[in-house]
Amino acid sequence: MTDLADGVVYGRSGLTYQAGLLDKRGLITRSPSSDDERSVIVTVADASRDLVARVLPGHVDRVRRLLFDPMIDGDLTALSDVLARVREHMRAAPPRSAKRRAGRNLTD
Fold this sequence. Notes:
The protein is mainly alpha-helical. Helix content is 56%, strand content 9%. The chain has a two-stranded antiparallel sheet.
């Protein structure tokens, strides 16, 4: 869970809360790690995969029509550059609860 929180630059307590909601809906399972009893392993449940398969095609089409279709030359590159700077800013100055724990490396 900590690695997941670090990867999405989200506070550990907020991620735990969200994971609890997903767990209650049967979309993920949480279990203790066999390697470290303090760690929690999150597994995507079949119900979650089914939900994504059902909604993703329409979502992708809508995002394409609303966001990407109106773009002209250079817009996608500019958007990518802006989002990369935002990502780096969020990783450089995350909320206190989302700061990486010592000894953990985050890769892109």
